[in-house]
Amino acid sequence: MSPQLTRGAFVPFQFAVRLAMPPPMGLAADMAWFLRAVPLGLCATLVLGGCVAGVAPSAGPAASPISGAANTALASGSPSPVPPMPALPGSGPPGSAPSASVPPSSASSFPPSSPGNPGSSPTQRPSPVLPPVPKAPAEPAVRFPKNEPAVGDGANAAISPIPDDVWASMSGYSWTKSCPVGRADLSYVQVNFWGFDGYRYRGAVVVNKAIASKTAEAFATLYAQQFRIRQMRPMDSSWGHNPKGPGANDYAAMEADNTSAFNCRYVGGEESRKVWSNHAYGYAVDVNDFENPYVANDGTVYPPDGTYFRTHRGAAPGVFSGASSKAAKAFTSLGFTWGGTWSHPDFQHFEVAR
Ligand SMILES: [Zn+2]
After folding, report:
1. How remote is the CA of residue 278 from the centroid of ligand 1, in Å?
2. CB burial class (10 A; 0-12, 13-18, 19+) of residue 320?
3. 213, 214, 278, 299: which could join 334 in a potential S-S bond, CB 3.0 to 4.6 Å?
4. Distance 169 CA to ligand 1 centre (A)
């Protein structure tokens, strides 16, 4: 374990407040929503421990305090222009899942294939903040996947133990009893990101808790850079089983351009060696797999449909164009190694030495 992984004095830095619904639009609605948020926010801010204990019945024995390093780095100490993390509104408390904040009716009114609309109806989605990414020569089957709406301002990163429902979806897929780490070793990192369609979304990755703070900071920096991310969902039952070995199906995730981290699987494309990937320890993060493909030792490019990006490494939305790119530095400046510089490059991959 490297020095920067040593967990020092933990202090809570952010406990988000799970609201019953996402922030509505419009000034009046904003005010109503704000009034709802204030008491909860005060609760989170002033009587932090009590609030957390009250809202996290499912945290279980894996519950751990939040690293103060994340607070410092995310709020003010980062060399990158990371926006401060406001106390309000927050993201989910330990024990809750992102989906819990999105009523089905709300999600269904946000068609994933729509890059925007004129906003002529109160039920319609407002226009995106950023322009949609133009169509690329190679794209995943779903250009604009359905993502959860952003929570709060800025990146609004939050770290918690693995919520019960998330763990239930992981068990038997990205985690099994043969895995080298367990639930207590892992953290759930939620953060807002910029979708390819220009909207702000909220995603989550599961990582080893030793790198949770720096993972949160890296994604907060990507947010500040307006770096586009297709989707960010933990590896779980929704991806199915890995057809080549233990773990959830990373091949499906790569084709779908999913950003994820923990997955208890062997090194991809070389499963016969039965060598645990650093993803099996939660020490590696894959970002925008389609635009940043992985080249196995035998030369096979994963995902196959993303082969275009094996050689087209110039600056483009969602692409880590080089080691000196500001997007790659969002991770490498924090001690991550980027796989894009390897002899068999893994452009999507950032890892921390165990
Ligand atoms: Zn990887």
Report:
1. 8
2. buried
3. 214
4. 21
* In the chain, domain spans: 3-101+130-351
Helix or strand (DSSP H, E) at 294: strand 294-295
H/E element, 251: helix 250-255
Rounded Cα distance, 257 and 286, in Å: 10
Tens of pLDDT, residue by residue over 194-239, are: 999 999 999 999 999 999 999 999 999 999 999 999 999 999 999 9
Tell the residue number behind the tokens 């297709």, with chain if given: 230
How many CA atoms does the CB half-sphere of 195 hold within 13 Å? 27
What's at 340, amino acid-wise?
G
Residue with tokens 């790198």: 211
Contact in structure between 16 and 91 (CB atoms under 8 Å) = yes
Distance from the Cα of residue 221 to its chain's centroid: 12
Which H helix or E strand runs over 104?
helix 104-108
Cα 151 to chain centroid, rounded = 13
Angle at 339 between CA 336 and CA 344, to 5 degrees: 160
Hey, what amino acid is at 14? Q
Angle among Cα 286, 287, 289 to the nearest 5 degrees reads 85
Q: Could you read off the pLDDT of 40-94 as tens digits, one per residue? A: 333 333 333 333 332 333 333 333 333 333 333 343 333 333 333 333 333 333 3
Ligand 1: centre distance to CA 122 (Å): 41
Between the CA of 49 and the centroid of ligand 1 the distance, in Å, is 36
Distance (Å) from CA 88 to ligand 1 centroid: 33
| Ligand 1 center–CA 107 separation, angstroms | 30
Please state the pTM of the whole predicted model. Answer: 0.69
Question: Chain centroid to CA 170: how far?
Answer: 15
Residue type, 111: P
Whether residue 190 contacts residue 164, with contact meaning beta carbons closer than 8 Å, is answered with no
Tell me, in angstroms, the distance from the centre of ligand 1 to residue 287's CA: 8
Distance 268 CA to ligand 1 centre (A): 8
